[in-house]
Amino acid sequence: MTRDDGGPPRVFITGSRGQVGWELRRALAPFGVIEAHDLDTLDLLDERAAREAVRKFKPDVIINAAAYTAVDKAESDKETCRLLNTAAPAALADEAEKLGAWMVHYSTDYVFGGNKDGNGRPRTEDDAPAPANYYGETKLAGDMAIRERASKHLIFRTSWVYASRGSNFLLTMLRLFEKGGEIRVVDDQIGSPTWARYLADVTAMSLRRAMERGPRVSGVYNVTSAGSVSWFGFAGEILEYSREMFPAVDAVLLPIPSEEYPTAAARPKWSVLSADKAARVFGIRAVPRKDAARLCIDEVKERRLK
Ligand SMILES: NC(=O)c1ccc[n+]([C@@H]2O[C@H](COP(=O)([O-])OP(=O)(O)OC[C@H]3O[C@@H](n4cnc5c(N)ncnc54)[C@H](OP(=O)(O)O)[C@@H]3O)[C@@H](O)[C@H]2O)c1
Q1: Which of 82, 229, 242, 285 is the most exposed place for a label (fewest CB within 10 A)?
Q2: 222 forms bridges with which residues in the sheet?
Q3: pLDDT greater than 80 at residue 300
Q4: Residues noted as catalytic
Q5: Chain centroid to CA 258: how far?
Q6: How far apart are CA 5 and CA 23, in angstroms?
Q7: Looking at the predicted structure, is the pLDDT value of residue 119 above 80?
Q8: What is the Cα–Cα distance from 8 to 30, expressed in whole angstroms?
Q9: Furthest-apart CA pair in the chain: how many Å?
Q10: How far apart are CA 136 and CA 31, in angstroms?
Q11: Residue 42 three-state SS
């Protein structure tokens, strides 16, 4: 894949220290020339600085992996959350459009609220959103701003992201297992835990195809692992796959309803997304949930057991 001038594509990445952003730097490395920013090099709350950085680099692709992801804190820190999740993607999408660049962004299952539909159907990209919480509202507004502004865009809607680094449920569980004892985990919220590495690889693969096929493939694409589980069920799998890390410890998992684990932000009970569209348009195979979790835990294990 080359630019009109024969050079490699130029890729501008934000949030490069985050779970997905870090993996993007790895997955996009063979793709083109990368300029990756973290909060220290570009604060997206400074819209003018963000626009200037893009104009200076002149990317063919902007990938926005930065976000306000503290879902509970967002309920009381609303303005910062809105600026980061709605205003910043809107400004980046404006700049993408001016340059004729692709705008790539990540959305969330929290744009949906509530319970499982009568038939337990995974949610599609066309289902009417009804955000579960303020974070979900600002993410949905960000999605809409990108769709309005950038004629070439890919918005990957994902859920329950984990990685071997950063802040996530999988690493929290491993820390609790190390201590041992009784661990109470919510058993009535169902979703698809998704490995950040898989998301980054799907991004690279879809982006390549989108650049070949043009703006008609712009849109929202659900990208998650295949299969669904409750947080309690996922915790059980993490415990099973990590046992040898904590041979002397006796962690015991107890299922609880959401009501016994109150949080500032409401969570949907049913977060399962259909991955059919990404399969149809880009040929993406949803990775089996357990395979991805095992690989990620193996990586953590390698580091810890050394
Ligand atoms: N995590 C999930 O479960 C989940 C689920 C569904 C969708 N998503 C979406 O997936 C995308 C990636 O999420 P993630 O899990 O990789 O998030 P993450 O690990 O929390 O990373 C977010 C990144 O945003 C950066 N950031 C925060 N404030 C910033 C600012 N003012 N200027 C520039 N950068 C700033 C952070 O920088 P520092 O590291 O320097 O603080 C961090 O690296 C987001 O769009 C998120 O909404 C995530």
Answers
A1: 285
A2: 157
A3: yes
A4: 135
A5: 23
A6: 28
A7: no
A8: 10
A9: 61
A10: 31
A11: coil
- Using only C-alpha atoms, the chain has a radius of gyration, in whole angstroms, of 19
The CA–CA distances, whole Å, from 257 to 184, 187, 223, 270 equal 10, 6, 27, 14
pLDDT tens digits, one per residue of 267-280: 999 989 999 999 99
Q: For 196-215, what is each residue's pLDDT tens digit?
A: 999 999 999 999 999 999 99
Among 114, 71, 111, CA closest to 268: 114
* CA nearest to 26, candidates 163, 219, 155: 163
* For range 275-304, the mean pLDDT: 93
Tokens of 272: 């399962």
Q: If you measure from the C-alpha of residue 127 to the centroid of ligand 1, how many angstroms do you get, rounded to a whole number?
A: 25
**Selection from 207, 233, 246, 216 nearest residue 289 by Cα:** 233
Residue nearest to atom 48 of ligand 1 (CA): 161
Q: Is 45 in the pocket of ligand 1 (CB under 6 A)?
A: yes
Long-range contacts of 67-74 (CB under 8 A, 24+ apart): 67/15, 67/18, 67/106, 67/139, 68/135, 68/138, 69/18, 69/135, 70/135, 71/110, 71/133, 71/135, 71/263, 71/265, 72/263, 72/264, 72/265, 73/264, 74/133, 74/134, 74/135, 74/138, 74/265
3-state helix/strand/coil string of 207-218: HHHHHHHCHHHC
Number of residues in the chain: 306
Rounded Cα distance, 88 and 163, in Å:
24
pLDDT confidence of residue 301 = 87
**What pLDDT is attached to residue 116?**
65
Distance from Cα 64 to the centre of ligand 1, integer Å: 9
Tokens standing for residue 301: 């294990």
Q: Residue 9: CB within 6 Å of ligand 1?
A: no
